[in-house]
Description:
Blueprint: E1 3-8, H1 9-20, E2 24-27, H2 35-45, E3 52-55, H3 59-71, E4 77-78, E5 88-93, H4 107-110, E6 118-121, H5 125-139, E7 148-153, E8 161-166, H6 197-216
Parallel strand pairs: 2-3, 4-5, 5-7, 6-7
Antiparallel strand pairs: 1-8
Helix pairs in contact: 1-2, 1-5
Amino acid sequence: MAIRERLSGNEAVAYAIRQTAPDVMPAFPITPSTEIPQYVANYIANGKVDTEFIHVESEHSAMSAAIGASAAGARVVTATSSDRLPVGLALVNRALSGPININADHSDSMGARDTGWIQIYAESNQEVYDNFLQAYPIAEHEAVHLPVMICQDGFITSHGVENILLVEGERVCGGIRPGPLSAERKGAHGIGALCGFQLLYGDQARSAGSHDKRQTGDSRSGGKV
């Protein structure tokens, strides 16, 4: 039976994080998502969820810790604005800080549109909650195995309070915790965060070319390579 509540978007996603029981949460406070790690930290302190909370010194550190924990096989979440890792990101959309603007804007998540992240956007606080419960079953599916960001509008949903229906139960998330990332997995790549797409796509092209060569043979030798 559903539980009727009145929650802000940040409260709703924190409640969903509690129910999905991540193993690790590295987080750095940044407006307007600061409340999410605060609420989750309270759940941890009160024994509501057994999650390792890592206090980091920047957003870059939060993502580095998230990638490392996920590669080691942990279910990971972060709430601050990876390659083939099922990281969950609760993203509260805001404008990039060039014009010193913290209001709702999708320029932050759109900057990562073509980087392999699955992006799911919420129109209401109910959708924020529902979407996050779906994040890990999607990300951890063996046919997907990609990071997922659950996006909501800064201040509009993140701080606005709405009526919401919560799923009853302490643990409601499915998904399959994937275990450690294996370097022996076919096609596995390690790509640094600061290298360009040219290197990534060039490496993939070279791998594909090498594979084709092994299958078809080298015309100069007249035989299989």
